[in-house]
Amino acid sequence: MTEARNDLAAKATTLARLHAAPEILQVVNVWDVITARTIADVPGTTALATASHSIAASLGYEDGENIPLEEMIAAVGRIAAATTLPVSADLESGYGDPGDTVRRAIGVGIVGANIEDQMRPLADAVARMEAVVKAGQAEGIDFVLNARTDAFVKAGDRDPADVLADAVERGTAFLAAGATNVFVPGLLDEHAVGTLVEAFGPQRLSVINVPGSLAPARLQELGVARISYGPWTQRVALTALADSARELLAGGALPEGTLPLN
Question: Where in the chain does DSSP place strands (E)?
Fold first, then answer.
């Protein structure tokens, strides 16, 4: 095995260990090289995760696999090359071929990925997750599959109990197919989080924190493995940019304490 492949395998193993640890893993999502370097330098950062929505937006595309795969792979590859930390990529639903997409991502230094089920028929969704697991095995690394179910984000006006039952069923099936974790995005209350952790086991549930979400400390107490922030980190940055622009155009000055991070 080459030195580069050994390094990649070590990063994958590290990322898997961070998910399994009792201490919750927080990944502050990034979308380009400068945000990756900035977050990597923040004390306490142990891994990076990309946000597909944010990458697409930064390149002028709508979210939802509208960005060409080649551009997404190039973007996550630049991020992986900019840091020594393990990087997990949001690869949406795999761009038509999740196994090959993950193989290509591994080729540019990615050691974990979110893959969406988009509420496809369960057998189809499981087959797609299995293809990702096989791709990691074929590349000889302990690839971290954060298998995402869209049960909550696509719930509409369905009964919340039925939605939660769907998330449990689909997540359990993805774990059985070899996924490392199950990612259940949505504004989850304590009952939903507790039910999912009980179904999947401790340190197997990943969540997204949005305004109104449970605090990280409580999520850790409940046995959650990972918190990510999706496009919200880019929204924070853009809000600060817009606020500064308004201040400047009104005759004000740049904010005190602004750092030359670029």
Answer: 25-27, 48-49, 87-90, 112-116, 144-148, 181-183, 205-208, 226-228
**With contact defined as beta carbons under 8 Å apart, do 31 and 59 qualify?**
no
Phi and psi torsions of 116, nearest 5°:
-85, 145
Asked whether the beta carbons of 181 and 205 are under 8 A apart, the reply is yes
Average pLDDT, the chain: 97
pLDDT (tens digit per residue) in 52-105 = 999 999 999 999 999 999 999 999 999 999 999 999 999 999 999 999 999 999
pTM attached to this predicted model: 0.94
* Residue 104: closest CA among 138, 129, 127: 138
Continuous segment of H or E residues that includes residue 109: none
What tokens appear for 237 in the block? 């940055």
Dist. CA 3–CA 9, nearest whole Å: 10
**Calpha distance 222→198 (Å, rounded):** 9
Place of tokens 């918190």: 227
